[in-house]
Write a structure and sequence with these properties.
The chain is α+β, with helices and mostly antiparallel strands and 535 residues long. It has helices at residues 84-88, 93-112, 204-208, 214-229, 256-265, 283-287, 292-306, 319-334, 347-357, 366-380, 424-439, 513-528; strands at residues 3-6, 16-22, 29-30, 35-40, 45-49, 54-59, 66-68, 72-77, 123-126, 136-142, 149-150, 155-160, 165-169, 174-179, 186-188, 192-197, 337-345, 386-388, 393-395, 401-403, 405-407, 410-412, 415-416, 453-457, 476-490, 493-507. It has a six-stranded mixed beta sheet with strand order 17-26-25-24-20-23. Strands 1-8-6-3 form a four-stranded antiparallel beta sheet, with no helix packed on it. A four-stranded antiparallel beta sheet has the order 5-4-2-7, with helices on one face. Helix 10 packs across helix 11 (424-439). The protein starts with a strand and ends in a 7-residue tail after the last helix.
């Protein structure tokens, strides 16, 4: 019997995926463990493995197309098997029975919980499906307990799936009122995991119903209808052949990032020589590749445009780009922010860095010095090391500085944990390691979470002043400009000096203007006197 494979949820925050490349085509034999496709999530491009064997009978999402999670991705079955009913959604015996059962169960549950209403502000959280094959999960550890206050973005628990142990993030704020699955216990997906809401709310009725409230039933019903209404095209179409010249087994070996860059630039991977292991094409191979034909085409296009032709091109937004837009949009339109500017004398910092870097095997950047100075200033001004919630201002005793890193698809913010306890050289090594992982899409989710303050540096691009958008739930972000040489007044004399502009953008709900100004004064003192950071 044919097996329907839907778009998997390959990360805990994934809502839709893009098929970057199919590694199998319609008619190919597939074994359990074979890689079917490379799928781009909101965090990375990942290989999607088959858990079935048979023949690939249908591909529902073509290369480059975006699809919501759980939409028809492919069908695997016996060669020659009639799958037209599965494609049309007219007859799907195993799944239809399951849908009917779900409807009956939902109706039954709703009838027994008609008197259960969710109090205002209460959120019932079910065991999430954190992998495409996950049917149940085990709570490895709870990081919060009943009575604890939680914010959006807090890590609630570590959940063991059939593939890995993953951190489960909270998407609400409030107080943990109930924990339904204890540490070490296993529970099916969608069973009651925890309840979050206003402190003191009575949720005994929800607990008694197992979390099966009428509101939950209402939410599930439209999804069932929506899924039934979404019918892929009736015609079985074979995967579109790629234009690349493949290796002997039909596959060009290239990293996902290299493939994406090549696709964006319109390059044929078969024309590019790989410098990676076993001839694998990597990022730098694509970036350094210049096809002669493309140069000629570009020249011709330029001539046409000069003649007055208007031309636009639509490029699909990557999952990372969408995530950045959502996060920064939420920050900009919810936080009442303001910015403060200060100029810093960098003469002593430049001399100190030269002395430090003269030591063998030691390398410290100006950005490392700024990060260290921020951590020390945050200790003296804890109001800046905070997060806002409607009920409370959260003061963080730990100091985790996020460092914005530009990558090909957008922006990532790896986090240097306990920055105040690290030396300049340790900070430098940590930033280089995490920045390298960010550019290669190797950052683990835990390495991008938990920041209490952020530094964004565009000085290396010659930018002298700019304002950054706050990386919530932080209360502030520091924008670092370029070091410039200009006339300055010292001891009543005009001399040549080196200065750098810093801009602090603050969330006015937690940080007032005077507090931000005092923080900048302290930061300026540390940077202008680097010896104070070595004590």
């Amino acid at each position: 019997m044919a097996t329907v494979i839907n778009m998997p949820r390959l990360s805990d925050t994934m809502e839709e995926g893009v098929v970057a490349q199919w590694l199998k085509k319609v008619g190919d034999k597939v074994e359990e463990g074979d890689i079917l496709a490379e799928i781009e999530t909101d965090k990375a491009t990942m290989e999607f493995e088959s858990f079935y064997e048979g023949t690939l009978l249908h591909i529902g999402i073509q290369e480059g197309e975006t699809s919501p999670v759980d939409k028809l991705l492919a069908i695997i079955g016996e060669e020659g098997e009639d799958i037209s009913a599965l494609i049309n959604g007219e007859a799907e015996p195993a799944k239809e029975d399951k849908v009917e059962e779900t409807k009956e169960e939902t109706t039954s549950e709703a009838s027994t919980t008609d008197n259960v209403a969710i109090p205002e502000g209460v959120n019932v959280i079910a065991m999430p499906r954190l992998s495409d094959t996950m049917t149940d999960g085990t709570v490895a550890s709870w990081l919060k307990k009943v009575g604890d206050k939680v914010e959006e973005g807090d890590i609630l628990a570590e959940i063991e799936t059939d593939k890995a142990t993953m951190e489960f993030e909270c998407f609400y704020e409030g107080t943990i009122l109930h924990i339904g699955v204890q540490e070490g216990e296993t529970a099916p997906v969608d069973s009651l995991l925890t309840i979050i809401g206003p402190e003191g709310t009575d949720v005994s009725a929800i607990i008694a119903s197992g979390g099966n409230t009428p509101a939950a039933a209402e939410k599930s019903a439209p999804k069932t209808e929506e899924k039934k209404a979404e019918k892929p095209a009736a015609k079985v179409e074979e995967a579109k052949p790629t234009t690349t010249t493949s290796t002997s087994n039909g596959r060009v070996f290239a990293s996902p990032l290299a493939k994406k860059i090549a696709a964006d630039k319109g390059f044929n991977l078969a024309d590019i020589s790989g410098s990676g292991e076993n001839g694998r094409i990597i990022k730098k191979d694509v970036e350094n590749f210049t096809p002669a034909a493309k140069v000629e085409a570009s020249a011709a296009t330029t001539t046409v445009i000069a003649a007055g032709e208007e031309k636009s091109e639509e490029v699909k937004n990557s999952q990372m780009r969408k995530a950045i837009a959502k996060s920064l949009g939420n920050s900009k339109f919810t936080a009442p922010d303001f910015s403060l500017n200060i100029e810093v004398d960098m003469d002593n910092a430049m001399a100190s860095r030269k002395t430090i870097n003269a030591i063998p095997d030691v390398k410290v950047s100006f950005n490392d010095m700024v990060v260290k100075a921020c951590a020390m200033a945050l200790k003296k001004h804890p109001q800046v090391n905070t997060s806002w919630s409607d009920a409370n201002t959260i003061y963080h005793s730990h100091i985790h500085v996020g460092v914005a890193v530009a990558v090909d698809d957008g922006l990532l913010v790896p986090v240097i944990k306990h920055t105040d306890s690290l030396s300049l050289t340790q900070i430098g090594a940590g930033v280089r390691d995490l920045a390298g992982k960010a550019r290669n899409k190797k950052l683990a989710p835990a390495e991008m979470q938990g920041s209490t303050f952020t530094v964004s540096n565009l000085g290396m691009f010659g930018i002298q002043n700019f304002n950054s958008i706050i990386n919530q739930p932080n209360s502030a972000i520091l924008s670092v400009g370029a070091i410039v040489q200009k006339p300055v007044v010292k001891d009543g004399q005009i001399v040549v000096g080196n200065t750098m502009n810093l801009t602090l953008t603050c969330d006015h709900r937690t940080v007032d203007g005077a507090v931000g100004a005092q923080f900048l004064q302290t930061l300026k003192t540390f940077i202008e006197n680097p010896v104070t950071m070595l004590a």
